[in-house]
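For homework, think about our next protein:
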Amino acid sequence: MSEAISLISTFATDEDCARGIEALHAAHIHNFRAFYPYPSEPLLEAANEARGLGRSPVRWWVLTGGLTGFLSAIALTIGTSLEWNLNTGGRPVASIPPYVVIMFELMILFGGISGVIGFFFHSRMPVFDPEPGYRSRFNADKFGLVVQCAENEVSRCESILRGAGAEDIQREAAPAAAAHGH
């Protein structure tokens, strides 16, 4: 079994890095990680397309939280009214119009909190240990792609990255978890 290698490539622009991701995708190489100093629409679109990702799953967290908040507000307000019924002027004990504000507020509160939790869950944050292949220049002014590949595919991957406009490519041994596809 050949040893896994990490190819750490540096790009000057987000268009070059996006072109590198698209070239890797076209070559059926999907074991890579992109680093960038600021969010870039072309880069995010290329990475999502290469990985087959569509829209963010965080929206389902927000929907679930919003519905939970709405149903909690109904249970809280109507349950409280029925428990301590204060019959004033012949009005119904559980009247919906006064509770609309509470239903709206809890829907927004639960939806917002669950959206933040979903964001942190899906972005795998916080990261306490830097990712393998990360370089500090990827936070300053350069874009980077770290490709995990077998030793016999290194030259192929290097030529793909150079063809996409990589300024610099470094080799290093891949960590044990990345070598096994984790």
About this structure: The chain has two domains: 4-55+135-179, 58-122.
